[in-house]
Amino acid sequence: MDKALWVAMSGAKNNMLAQSVAANNLANLNTTGFRADFVQARSMPVYYGSGDPTRAYAQSEIPATNFQQGAMIQTGRDLDVAVEGEGFIAVQAPDGNEAFTRVGSLYIDSVGILRTGSGLPVMGNGGPLAIPAAEKVEIASDGTVTAIPLGLGAEGIVVVDRIRLVNPPADQIEKSTDGLVRMKDPEQAVQADALVKLQSGFLEGSNVNAVNEMTSMLELARQYELQVKIMQNVKEQSESSARLLQMN
């Protein structure tokens, strides 16, 4: 009976872990540029010696992230950009290394650094992209940033830099716990990709499918209830066995 108890307990535990992933996806339904996580469960046989497995535990894991494009939301703001199709905007992560994002709600800070909405510096050709004081700033589809310096008219427009756009293979990247995408091999260099395009005046919405996530949460809740019922049955059987032994 202890085997049934431990198997049911591992199943219930991993149902809770899977529910946390679905709940996190659902909570980010309206988060700009959010990528949904996939979750799967598999059995993990336990072997003793060279014989057959005595039992099989459950294990939940996040094997991949859904990198499909989300819906495009028009904002009309010059510094809002959305990546069209595949690709990412390169940013400087809090640890100083390069990371990737599709969150394109950008702004210019007090010292002229172009940053994402969460405050991360956007990378240009030679590092964080700096913009001088300007009357107007625009971002072209290829990531080129142009500006009209203060005091000048349209004839004084200058090219400031170009946002670093990349498109590494999907099997070589992973989403970190902070929501940023990084290379699985930190030492691997990523070249800029001229085929990645931006759409100015738009933001990309989350790619979470609310119906799928709600259905998944309901299924996981039912599975959790079944695991708990098994544990209750094991308890009742154990108590019955103890009473029989007391009678003898």
Strand portion, in percent?
A: 25-35%
Structural domain count: 2
Average pLDDT figure:
88
Strands of the biggest beta sheet: in what spatial order?
6-5-14
Describe the sheet with the most strands. Answer: 3 strands, antiparallel
Overall 3D form = elongated
Describe the protein's architecture and organization:
With 248 residues, this protein is an alpha+beta fold. The protein folds into 2 domains: 2-67 and 208-247, no CATH class; 72-204, no CATH class. It is built from 2 helices and 18 strands. The chain has helices at residues 2-27, 210-247, and strands at residues 40-46, 55-61, 72-74, 81-84, 88-92, 98-101, 106-108, 114-116, 123-124, 127-128, 134-139, 144-149, 158-162, 165-166, 173-175, 181-183, 197-200, 202-204. Helix 1 runs antiparallel to helix 2. The mean pLDDT is 88.
In short:
This protein is α+β, with helices and mostly antiparallel strands.
Q: Key terms for this structure?
A:
three-stranded antiparallel beta sheet; single chain; alpha+beta
Question: Helices and strands in order, then pairings?
Answer:
Layout: H1 2-27, E1 40-46, E2 55-61, E3 72-74, E4 81-84, E5 88-92, E6 98-101, E7 106-108, E8 114-116, E9 123-124, E10 127-128, E11 134-139, E12 144-149, E13 158-162, E14 165-166, E15 173-175, E16 181-183, E17 197-200, E18 202-204, H2 210-247
Antiparallel strand pairs: 1-2, 3-18, 4-17, 5-6, 5-14, 7-8, 9-10, 11-12, 12-13, 15-16
Helix pairs in contact: 1-2
